[in-house]
Amino acid sequence: MKKNISFQTKITMLIIVLILVSIGMSILFVGKWSLDNIQNKVEDNIKNISVILANSPDIQNALKEKDFTKIQSSTHELLDELDGVDIITIADMNGIRYAHPNPDKIGKRFVGGDEVKVINEGVGYISQAKGTLGISIRAFEPIFYKKEQIGFVMVGVLYEDIKEFREDALITICGFTLFGIILGIIGALIIAKKTKDSLLGLEPYEIVYLYKENRAMLESIIEGIIAIDSKGRITLVNDYAIKILNIKKPNVIGEYVLDVFPTSRLLEVLKSGECEYNEEQIINDTVILTNRVPMKDGDKIIGAMASFNDRTKVKRLAEEITGVTQIIQALRANTHEFMNKLHVILGLVKLNEIDELRIYIKDIVKEQEQIRFFLTKNIKNPTISAIILGKLNRAKELNVDMELCENCYLEKYYKNIQNENLLTIIGNLLDNAMEAIVRKGEDGEVYFRIEDVDDFIEIEVHDNGIGIEDENIERIFRRGFTTKEGEGGIGLFLVKKSINQLNGELLIDSKYKEGTSILVRIPKEEKG
């Protein structure tokens, strides 16, 4: 499977490649310029020395008088003093040497063959040839005495020395180049890290996905959303807000909020930094409920956001939420049971009981898989399935053994039976059964059955808890009646109310200190 390269790595690699290309091109031009410059400097240096020697009266007179000793002495001293010069040779018009770094070569003929031009034409120039000391770069200059050429001077640098100069220059360039590359890589890493941090550690594709996801989420919310920046300019608005505000412009992003929404209080929230919840406001003859909150970066307010909706729709939604408490309790029980399992797993990890950990996890998975499979197969209604699962976990918390009937079965939908009524009945009956066992103070068991039987839905809950005293059996379904300290006596009242709404019936059989059995029968079709 191909692994995606992270944004930080891409940035780092891109910067490094740019640095390498830039430095590489710089080396190419600077290196060539440096090497050419060395060559030019060497040639200029030996050229200047050759001109100075050719115009020296002492050299001219000594060569005219054929004074070998004086010429050799003068050039030898000069050769010792000069840097970057290896050879100084002075010869007459016949090419006979009067000065040479090697005294044994004095009086002998000049070697190289490149002296012909200076003898025949009497002009200075630069050449390269192999002499007695090896290949060298040579500067020739004619020597005149009273406008008559009497010989020439050759100042040379051995090619090996020039090669060393070039190598030293290249080593220096490479050293600085390596330093620059290392510095560039460090800089690239820092820039890439800073860039990644500024994007909250997200990859570009993640940012794009989040943008699309958030946009889809905003448009799917049946609630108006509008946000402004610190200058009061609109930065976000969804379609539902545009519909409620009756905005005619195709795009209001960047517009001043009061130009679009004259009665908006977002600017006040921006100034005060205080949240405003469940505020009523009239827009286009519609009463809305709105929440306004400031957006902060640390302690700095960077904007404000408002969410709003038609109050009548909010009311209708609230009315449809009947029975949600049971789901919340079920989810809370699931969460608590999950946390308990996590604590056990953490303990086994800390104790390094890996084998026990494997067994424990396998048992959990097996148990959950069995329960999930059973509920999925038999209870088609996911809401009812969820509350049963929640009560199973709640029973574990209370150390109560809860058993499900093997024949449990429920369709996903029944024409006259609402989920909230079933939730109220099942949730409260199971809660009461478990509470009865806890109050008894002994290990107990709850049996639960929900089954589609002929024309009825049957719900049966049996427990071997504290039971109900005979005189209280007729009173337990009254609002406010309870035998439990601190309770409001509402649970069984809601159960009875829900059963009546569904035209069902409830049968109860209870013996004090022995247990209670309750059977609820709900018709699947409304009675005429």
What does this structure look like?
There is one protein chain. The protein has about 525 residues and is of the alpha+beta class. The chain is about 50% helix and about 20% strand. The strands form 3 sheets. Strands 2-1-5-4-3 form a 5-stranded antiparallel β-sheet. It has a 5-stranded antiparallel β-sheet with strand order 7-6-10-9-8. Strand 3 and strand 4 form a beta hairpin. The chain is elongated.
Protein traits:
single chain, 528 residues, alpha+beta, five-stranded antiparallel sheet, elongated
Radius of gyration: 50 Å
Kindly state the percentage of residues in helix: 40-55%
How much of the residues is beta strand, in percent? Answer: 15-25%
**In one word, what is the shape?**
elongated
Strand order, largest beta sheet: 2-1-5-4-3
Q: State the separation between the terminal residues, measured CA to CA.
A: 64 Å
Output the structural class: alpha+beta
Topology pattern, helix = H, strand = E: HHHEEHEEEHHEEHHHEEEHHHHEHEEHEE
Strand segment tally:
15
Please state the average pLDDT score: 80
**Could you describe the largest sheet, including whether it forms a barrel?**
5 strands, antiparallel
Low-confidence stretches: 316-323
Work out the helix count: 15
